[in-house]
Design brief:
heterodimer; A: about 140 residues; mainly alpha; 6 helices; B: mainly alpha; 8 helices; DUF6691 (chain A); membrane (chain A); Sulphur transport domain-containing protein (chain A)
Chain lengths: ~140, ~170
């Protein structure tokens, strides 16, 4: 847990330092007024990519959890496109994404609570909907 | 200087490339990005976890909701709260020592709220956000994440340009 906190501290500091915690700066990128944003995302991806590439070859498992070092690989299905599209509309409208929203609260941007309330509401809505659908799919048929 | 002038001239029609692509320089973005990556690496080295920020939304809902969808996150919800608190505190350290106080957005509340709802739905249905797909997924050379990033980046650019063209600002 202390290590998670330290990692989060550096992560959040980086988001604030890069100004990604300011929706205006993200919108400036999306409107092509300031092309800095890719340096943040891809800069971070390169740093994490080095760790993802090297660690599995050096050690089998992480010291604190015993978890095997793996890359972050998720299966592809149409949800990636549907969800990515919905996220894209929301990101383009508001200029804020989850990690940057938490950091935005940290820089004293209380107005971002609007976005955070919205994110929880959105996550809840999709959770209720998918819970119901999962129940319907495996309902009476798998009652055994 | 001549190159810059040419560049500006070429870029003028359509404004696909701005006359001044980096009005604030690139160092803040590059250094910030390296730090974001470093934060993710610190967690990965110790725990083997490729962290993302948006799962926190669902894992935290599992404290207060019995919806079956959220149950899968009960095991990770505690450390995800710590991770998010770390992000808030880290940004607060920046605000205190570099920014010199608080900063508040001028983007209108309805954009933040409605955009937030869509971000909440989309990141969870789409299996990740800018940190999960964008940083850890792309860092893992995951094809799913690369497709995800291209999707939300393209849609976000189109959306922001339409909103701007409709005269909504900020």
């Amino acid at each position: 847990m202390p290590l998670i906190l330290v990692g989060g501290l550096i992560f959040g500091f980086g988001l604030a330092y890069s100004h990604m915690a300011r929706p205006e700066v993200v919108l400036d990128f999306l409107q092509f007024d300031d092309l800095g944003l890719p340096f943040v995302m891809f800069g971070a991806a390169i740093v994490s990519g080095i760790a993802f590439a090297i660690m599995p070859r050096i050690r089998d498992s992480a010291p604190l959890t015993g978890d095997v070092y793996r890359r972050r690989l998720k299966s592809f299905d149409r949800n990636v496109l549907i969800g990515g599209g919905i996220f894209g509309v929301g990101w383009g409208l508001s200029g804020i994404c989850p990690g940057a929203a938490y950091a935005s609260l940290g820089i004293g941007n209380v107005a971002i609570l609007w976005a955070l309330v919205g994110m929880f509401a959105g996550a809840y809505l999709q959770g209720v909907w998918r819970s119901k659908r999962a129940a319907a799919d495996s309902g009476p048929a798998s009652a055994d | 200087m001549i190159e810059i002038a040419l560049f500006a001239e070429l870029a003028a029609p359509g404004q696909v490339v701005p006359a001044e692509p980096f009005p604030n320089g690139i160092s803040r973005y590059a250094i910030g990005g390296l730090l974001v990556g470093l934060g993710a690496v610190v967690i990965y080295l110790g725990t083997g976890i490729a962290a993302g920020a948006s799962t926190f939304l669902e894992s935290t809902l599992s404290y207060v909701s019995d919806q079956s969808r959220f149950k899968q996150y009960r095991g990770s919800r505690d450390w995800r709260v710590v991770f998010t608190l770390g992000i808030i505190l880290g940004a607060a350290v920046y605000a205190v020592f570099w920014q010199g106080g608080t900063w508040t957005t001028d983007v209108q509340p309805w954009r933040l709220l409605l955009g937030g709802v869509l971000v909440g739905i989309g990141t969870r249905v789409g299996k990740g956000c800018t940190s999960g797909h964008g940083v850890c997924g792309v860092g893992s050379a995951s094809k799913t994440s690369i497709v995800g990033v291209i999707t939300f980046l393209t849609v976000a650019i189109v959306t922001a340009q339409i909103v701007q063209a409709m005269g909504v600002s900020p």
